What we know:
alpha+beta; outer membrane lipoprotein receptor (LolB), chain A; 13-stranded antiparallel sheet; 4 helices
Amino acid sequence: MGRVFLLGVFLIAAAGLRGDRALEIALIHVEAIGGVKRIEALQSLRAHGHVVTSGKQVRFTMTAARPARIRLETDAGGRTLIQASDGEEPPWEFDTGTWPPQYREMSAGVARTFAADAEFDDPLVARASRGYTLDYAGELTVDGRKLVRVLVTRKFSETFSLLLDEETYFVVMRVEHRESAGGRKLQLVTHYSDFRPVDGVLLPHTVTLTVDGKATQQTKISRIEANPDLKNVVFVRPKPRPAQATP
């Protein structure tokens, strides 16, 4: 009984140490990318760039605002796709490639991923305010680069790892596992690079996605506007006009 009790105390203490180290890493990260005041002053942004996937290039404009509002507009070959969320109602989309084009709710899988990506701050900045639990998970070396690993858990179900450069404390990778439509487990790694200041906050301008080690998509951001005017930006799904009664 005594040994079991001591083991329980040791495990609780170890978990506390991991949490303390993770918080320390998060605080260093916040300062490294610009500090609390600059991050909080960045209330919204608008990014312009393009995505390359399957050999095709798609232009996009993304507008995001605190806490979780986002609108993404893409254009390819005359086809326009709008995807948006106000952070409260289910994410929606409007696709001129379907007929008749209409404002519709996203499918569950797409909506879940879109909503997760819509969060304005990364988990090390948001932490408990957005329901994240952080645990220190050691260090590793990838391609000669020393990285610090933080395990992120949300609502006891969503788990992924963030890898930070040991020198800069920038988040350079996000590693997660998902299941394909066919039930196969996949490893998704998102690589972040080309960090540039946006009103004093360092943000990545190149994002590369690999699936089981194979690069499948790369996003290149040409410029990011800080705190743009949002009065004409629609995040809420437009409601259809009620049919007029015939006389």
